[in-house]
Structures are given as C-alpha cells and as structure tokens.
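thread from #wetlab-drylab

HS: before we spend reagent money on co-crystallization trials with arginine, can we at least see a predicted complex? here's what I'd submit
DV: go for it
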Amino acid sequence: MASVTSLSDTVQQQLASAISAVRPEAAADPLLRRSDRADYQANGILALAKKAKANPRELAAEVVARVTTGDVIKDIEVSGPGFLNITIADEAIIRNLAARYADEAGRLGVPYAEHPGTTVIDYAQPNVAKEMHVGHLRSAVIGDSVAKLLEFTGENVIRRHHIGDWGTQFGMLIQYLDEHPHELDHKEAEVTGEEAMSNLDRLYKAARKLFDSDEDFKTRARRRVVDLQAGDPHTLRMWQKFVDESKIYFFSVFEKLDMEIRDEDIVGESGYNDMLAETCRLLEESGVAVRSEGALCVFFDDIKGPDGKPVPLIVQKSDGGFGYAATDLSAIRDRVFNLKANSLIYVVDARQSLHFKMVFETARRAGWLNDDVKAYQLAFGTVLGKDGKPFKTREGETVRLVDLLDEAIERASAVVREKAQDLSEEEIAERGAQVGIGAVKYADLSTSANRDYKFDLDQMVSLNGDTSVYLQYAYARIRSILRKAPEDARPAAHPELPLHEAERALGLHVDAFAETVAEAAREYAPHKLAAYLYQLASLYTAFYDKCPVLKAQSPEQVANRLFLCDVTAATLRQGMALLGIRTPERL
Ligand code: ARG
C-alpha cells in the first residue's frame, strides 16, 4: 500500500510554491496539462498576471527563476504570451513507474481518497416476471463500473438492485397461479434461466388473457393486490415463487454478462413496503405533501403540464394505494438513515428524470437530503439501432437482452477463431464470451452515459478503432512478448537510460492512470477511463513500432523496455477490470 505521487502532481506542487513565493498574496492554480510542445504546459500565469496587473511574460520568468530543475523537472521555459513549458527528466519517469510497479498488484500506486464516504448505488434493477432489455443492460454495465471505480478509490459502496417486484400486476399473476397451482412446480431440480423466463412469460400471457376477458377473474385479481399489500401469508408465498423464478433468470443473465450480483444486495420495491405509510405520514405532517382530490401530492413551482397546470408527485393515490414514488422516497430514508449514506446514485434511464427530480426535491424539503447527503441520477440515454431509432426487432418488439448478448458472443467467437493460432475449441469459446461481452460493455461505457448510442455489433467487435477487442489484443500482445522474453531478460527499471520520445509519451500516460481513475470516480464517468485506456493502447502501439524490445541495444535497455511493457499491461488490465472487462492472457 504505497501510493505514488504522480509526476503531474509533483510539478503542480513545485509550480504552486514558486508562484506563491513570487506573489505571496495570490493563491493561483498553475493550470497544468499535458501538451504537444513539451511534456506539460501551465497556463495559470495569464490569469494571475491579469489580476495583479503585471506583464505575464515577466511574471512567468520570475516564476521560472524560482523553480529548481533537477530530479523531476528537467527544463522549464516561458513560451507564447506567458505559458510555461515543462519537460520531465527521463529518469524521473522511469523511477515513478518503478514505484507504481512495486505497489501491490493492480493498485499501481493510485492513492485512496482522503475522506471516503458511503455511497449507495442503485443499478441493475430489472422487473420480476419480465424479460430484461437493453435499458437494463445499460444500468447494469454503467452501475457496475461506477461501483468498482468508487471502491477502488476507497469509498464504502453499498449496492442496491431496486427490482420491480411489487405492484398491481402481481395480483393478477398470483391469482392465476393460485387457480393453476402446478404451473411453477419444477419437475427437475435445476431450471435454467431461459426456462425460468419462458415459464414466467407463459404465465404472464395466460394471466393477462384471463384478466382482459373475464370480469370475475379481474375482481379476484384486484382483491389479491389488497391481500398482498396486507401481507397475507398464503399470497406472499405465491408472490415469492414469482420472485424466485425471476431471480433464476436474472442471475443467468448477469452471469452471462460476467457480472457479480449478490442476493443480499437485491432489495426490490417490496423491501420498502413497511415504510410506505410512515413516509406518507411524515410528508403530510411536515406539510411537504398535501391532500389534493383525495391523493397525497407534492407540488413544484417549476413543474407544469402542457396545460399549464402544476404536475404533482403523487405519493399516495386517492384509493390509498402507494406507487413508485412512495417506494423511492422510503428507499431514500432507508439509505440515508439506516445505511448512513452520504451519496445516493441512481443509474436509471433518462426518461425517468422528471420522477427523480421530483423525488429528490421532495426528500430535500423533508430534510432527508441536504448539502451533506446528496442524491444524483446518473441518467443514461437510449440504445438505438443502426438506423438511429430506438432499438427494436424487425417485428417492432423490444429486443431480448439475452438474444443480443448471444449474438455478440457469436460474432466475437468468429473474430477470435479467425485470429486464433494455438487456441483449443474450449479456449475459443471462453475467449469468444470474454471478447463479446467486453465489446458490449465497452461500447456502452465509452460514450458518456447521458448520450444515446447505436448498437452496432460490426463496429463493436472490430479489431481497429476504439473497441474493447482492440484493447484486449493490445494486452494479449504485450503478454506474449513477456512470455517470449528469454530467461535472462526480465523486466527491470533502468532509470539511468535515456528514453525515446515514444517511451516518454507512454510513460507519462501510464503515470496519468491515477488522476484518470480519480476523475472518472469523482464524476461517475467511466467513459473517461475508457478514453484513457484507448490512448494507452495507441501509445503502446507507437512505442512498439519505434522501439525494439527484445532486440534493443543493451541488456539493460531490453530489461527497461520489458518493464515498460509490463507496467503498461498491468495498467491496461486494471483499467479494463474497472470497466468490468476481462483481459485474456492469450488471444
Ligand atoms: N425497475 C425500474 C425499471 O425497469 C428501474 C428502477 C430504478 N430504480 C429506482 N430506485 N427507481 O425501469
């Protein structure tokens, strides 16, 4: 557990202290960034000069005079209107990477957050007795990565899968099952996810048909809803059968997605049933919610319907029933007061943004959320087909997630097979799944969540371009070089060697892993990590083209380049793992 100060942080600190030595009254940010002209460029002097009414070039020169060059900064000079161009010493780059390399596996010297908190993240929330679709894919993939990123920074992360397991539709299902008691009995002990879903689907259709055609059944079904909410034991047992059957299906999909979902983290809508009445009472007593036409409502100045009338959040319907909002408000109370969260994240479709806006505002008025306890909807956009329209089958139906994943795996297996040199059939199948699922996840994670994206399998499994396959191949290629290295050529850092431009660029980018992870975690933005990894693979390719590794000039240079290969591979591997994507050793 040795966290490493990044080169950019070291430079940043040195510049900041030089600036405050020159202008003690000003706390100026040097505004450091990577640059094409030098390793880093600092633009902060311009703003400082403006504030101090000084000549920026002169001020820059004064700052430069205060910076000690040597260990880390090899060269610093004024450029343009008052920028600072900074060049890092080769030696410092290799020393820094060596320190990262020496850290425990995968940590790469990335520091933990100074003040970690507790975050509850609500993601991967399919609905009981229903198929999962691409929307559930996005929530699962984005949520899983954000949870991993936060955990990596030391945050205490609590996962909540708010599955849709409650509501009026269960009255119909339970009543039907009660009248056809053997429909969910399993003859064999083991039921596959596919079978479970097809059982549920069959039941759902049959129940629906009866519900729509038979008035008496409808009445009986409605009475069941009341029994369910009242906690009637027999009704609950029936309901549990649906939940259990659905979980078999959910877990099979999550497994296909190569995603670990724990049963204890599944707390569906039903889990808050006991809190609903109290939530309403608290809101009504505090005046946050008011009775309007029998319903308990919360009103907002800025939320109006097309007719100009205010649209309220309904917490309790006029018939006494509780809906989605009451459940979410109760979940907030649970997460804040029982789980002691400081941050609540909801990875949910952007089409539910109005709902969350109203729910969060209501919770703020009630005092459950405030400046110290915040809620955020990580809203994601729609998955589009190649034609740019919401993703549908040719028949216009929503695409089943499993079909989509199977197709991705199939396509990826074909790619793997074509390139495979010495892989067995079994290995091809395993890699095919890792590449196919990786492709789907990466396509989702490499654009910012709030944007819509096109689901295009051809593009996703392409070996060229910004795809996970490209990154996985880059990783496998590095591993193969390391395997091929002779016994006496082991990766070892040699800071005394001068570096090639391509080595420097690669090294500086590896160093930036820590700040990238911190930024991606802070902003809940896995796409920033994806962009970083893509660039890492590209810089590695450039390095590999220009710098012979095993045929380098001296044994020291061979060792140093193998070391660069190894630390790059470790960074790629860890970065991909934070996106939930595997990096096979051989492809
Ligand atoms: N089950 C819902 C759906 O499929 C998503 C639940 C989102 N989470 C929440 N706390 N409301 O749309």
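DV: The pocket of arginine is lined by residues 122, 125, 127, 162, 164, 328, 331, 346, 348 (CB under 6 Å).
HS: ok that's useful, forwarding to the group
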